[in-house]
Amino acid sequence: MHARFESMAMAFKVSFSTLNSGNAKYRISSTSLTDCRKKYPSVLKSHTTKAEIFRSMEKWAEQNILTYLKPVEKSWQSQDFLPNPASDGFIEEVRELRKRAKEITDDYYVCLVGDMITEEALPTYMTVLNTNDGIRDETGSSPNPWAVWTRGWTAEENRHGDLLNKYLYLSGRVDMHQIEKTIQYLLCSGMTVGGGRGGENGTGNDPYTTFVYTSFQERATSVSHGNTARFALNQGDVNLARLCGAIASDEKRHEAAYQKIVEKLFEVDTNETMLAFAEMMKRKVVMPAQLMYDGRDEHLFRNFSRVTQRLGVYTSMDYADILQFLVERWNVEKITADFDGNGREAQDYVCKLAPRIRALAERSQNMKNRGEPNLVPFSWIRDRKLPI
Ligand SMILES: [Fe+2]
Ligand SMILES: [Fe+2]
């Protein structure tokens, strides 16, 4: 997942302080629960009702959501895209891969590394899904369809980090120690869904906002991996393009599943779902690797986001397009339910938001184009500098 959309992250009203604990550096949010209640009243109410709704949808999930998981026997594995260490031609294949990798630009590698680090923080995402009332895996091997989905989704996602990690290791283009450190730090820090940390001041254990987030997020990763595939092809590396494309197509299947869940929620609990959609968008869909740190750069996520924006791997225009897509996908403009006042207001807000974001993005792009870009070192590529 990836709002390397820096201005979105910056617009966030949450302030972070850092504290040192032994050798590790963890980031702690200072926004209080009381503030959050004032700002986002509906997220913190009626969780019991929402959990009940998810329980009543178990049969539906079994028939309509689990079908989006691909059987293991039909799934690709990392090995299908990489030199085979058990074959005699292994060394030659690695040499070929490294020869192709030499032709690719540093800024591309920074995007690919950031994508890989995001994928490698998967334990956090499974944890976050399991904080949600009504869908959590109560035992670790629960037969509940929501739990089966979360485990199946995680098992598919696990291949993404594996594949990118192994490719980058073989490419010889990056500093693996620095990258591995960044992953370890990120797993220590966790993630924010809609601001702050989890139940403290994020969306908490609200499955409605969580599934709006994943609907957006999985589409964002599909866009991002799709673009790294396209750019690899433009730079003449067909194998790398295939590898990124395979990940992008998994993400597309996942986004379809999550969007179907929210579509169903709109049908069974229209008012609350509209509120959840609007609240998620007010909080901004900040990407899950927002707290990334490599032990050196305090602004690593911001700097990485600027590279993805400049290269066009994931941009603020993509953010607006995804929002617009979701508004259309869920037919939000045409919903004519018996809203309470807040529901109507929420509908109006989300329907008008994408054009506003586009206008803001254009303005900030024009301003950036006028200034000289800064050169910033990235430890992932041995401190070589990139314009941001
Ligand atoms: Fe993924
Ligand atoms: Fe994903």
TrEMBL record:
Its main location: plastid. Belongs to the fatty acid desaturase type 2 family. It comes from Zostera marina (Eelgrass). It holds the Pfam family FA_desaturase_2. Homodimer. The keyword Metal-binding applies. This is Acyl-[acyl-carrier-protein] desaturase. GO terms for molecular function: metal ion binding; stearoyl-[ACP] desaturase activity. CDD domains: Acyl_ACP_Desat. SUPFAM superfamilies: Ferritin-like. Fe cation 1 binds at residues 119, 157, 160, 251. PANTHER family: ACYL- ACYL-CARRIER-PROTEIN DESATURASE-RELATED, STEAROYL-[ACYL-CARRIER-PROTEIN] 9-DESATURASE 7, CHLOROPLASTIC. One of its GO terms (biological process) is fatty acid biosynthetic process. The lineage of its organism: Eukaryota, Viridiplantae, Streptophyta, Embryophyta, Tracheophyta. Its cofactor is Fe cation; Fe(2+).
